[in-house]
Amino acid sequence: MEWYHALMIMLGTLFTLMLVGLPVAFAFLGVNLLGAWLFMGGEAGLAQLVRNSVSAISSFSLTPIPLFVMMGELLFHTGLAFRAISSIEQLITRLPGRLSVVSILGGTTFAALSGSTIANTAMMGSAMLPEMLKRGYHPTLAMGPIMAVGGIAMLIPPSALAVMLGSLAGVSISGLLVGGIIPGLLMAAGFLAYVILRSRKEEADQGDEDAQLDIGQPSHWQRWWPFFRDVVPLLGIFVAVVGCMLAGWASPTESAAIGVLASLIATLAYRTLTLKNLMVSLMETTKVSVIILFVLVASTGFSQQLSFSGATGGLLSLITDYELSAFWLTVGMLAIILIMGCVIDQVSMMMITLPFFMPLAAAAGIDPVWLGVMMLIAMELGLLTPPFGLLLMVMQGVVPKSIRLPQIYAAAVPFLLIEALVLVCILLLPWLATGLPSLMK
């Protein structure tokens, strides 16, 4: 069988199963079973598929995934994340678009502690959006920052998706985690600049000063003390996780374990940890981790079927015949991800593209950490890209019924452009993504 026939069979079956509504992981599992039977020798191929699946999730490098998930679940279910956001709100009093600024700063803080885009958007939407709409904020400044800052959780540690990408692509996990920090902070800075400038122009924060007068102007100490009490200790968790990796004192797995231990100590110190919310956190961690590991099994099997069928090698030789430069090859790969982001989710994108992209990148001499960070940014753009951006759907679930989906789409557009600008900056200035990882010992 020619490689392109095998590729058509595999991809055609995959998209057919997804179109009929089968969950992504099960669609890939079905394709893997078909591929193992066709290309790996019938029953012997199925047995080999099982052995490969076991080895795929037995890797020690996957351990950070449940640990990073648990960090976010602990801080979320014990309420420490809400306390941090409330403290940031008290600190910011005189900026235009105050609540939008709070959404960005609070969402970035929670992103540095949770690594969950969905949890970030859902929590900020529930906590901040009703008050912002009540005070007459423009929908772009009310919904846009909350959706945009949710995607930052995909970039900066602790990001379970970055760990997943590193595991599937064979890229340094610590390099990806640390490499996403500067791009994530650049996005947050861009969001802040846009919100402040837009608010000054449209006076979207009308009513904030009146609310301040109702409760009286607090002293400097009254505004700063909650920040030092509720925010600085939690940011210390982020510093401990990243600092240990940068200094070479701990691997990503060990840093994740330090993060969980620090989170537990924090919840005990604040006296917010109970047996009930501990069990809820453990249960949610288990659910998310099992889903991720199941996806990893399916993705690894899919990659192996493409290799055994000759599809990967055939497509690789076809593209290399065009003799594209590394830069234009990178642009092409990012363009494919951006297009796919309009219609499918981030996990599916990784599972479909990585078996092709990583051999191409290795053959062209492309820095894998640089490419990996840009892929994460491109997938983050997919979270806000109509019609099926995941965070758009999450926002639709928390907004009042009077707000229609086109308004949510419109609110995301300015922040999509800011994220695209950051992606272009990383593409033209690779050191923005590789600078911090190069400092790691």
Helices and strands in order, then pairings?
Elements: H1 3-19, H2 24-39, H3 43-56, H4 64-77, H5 80-91, H6 98-114, H7 117-134, H8 139-152, H9 160-169, H10 173-179, H11 181-202, H12 208-215, H13 220-230, H14 232-246, H15 252-269, H16 275-309, H17 311-320, H18 326-340, H19 346-364, H20 368-383, H21 390-398, H22 405-428, H23 431-439
Helix pairs in contact: 1-2, 1-17, 2-3, 2-16, 3-16, 4-9, 4-15, 4-16, 5-6, 5-13, 6-7, 6-8, 6-11, 7-8, 7-21, 8-11, 8-22, 9-10, 9-19, 10-23, 11-22, 14-15, 16-19, 17-19, 18-19, 18-20, 19-20, 20-22, 20-23
How would you describe what is shown here?
It is a multi-pass membrane protein. Its main location: membrane. Keywords: Cell inner membrane, Cell membrane, Membrane, Transmembrane, Transmembrane helix, Transport. The chain is mainly alpha-helical. It has one domain. It is 79% helix and 0% strand. The protein contains 23 helices and no strands. The longest helix is centred in the middle third of the chain and has 35 residues, at 275-309. The protein is globular and about 75 Å long.
List keywords for this structure.
79% helix, mainly alpha, 23 helices, 441 residues
The H-and-E topology, N to C, reads as: HHHHHHHHHHHHHHHHHHHHHHH
Q: Sheet bearing the most strands, described?
A: none
Shape: globular
Query: Low-confidence parts lasting 5 or more residues at pLDDT below 50?
Result: 204-215
Mean pLDDT: 81
- Overall number of strands: 0
Helix percentage range: over 70%
Instruction: Write down the domain tally.
Output: 1
What radius of gyration results from the CA coordinates?
23 Å
Distance between the termini: 48 Å
Class per helix and strand makeup: mainly alpha
Number of helices: 23
Residue fraction in strands: under 5%
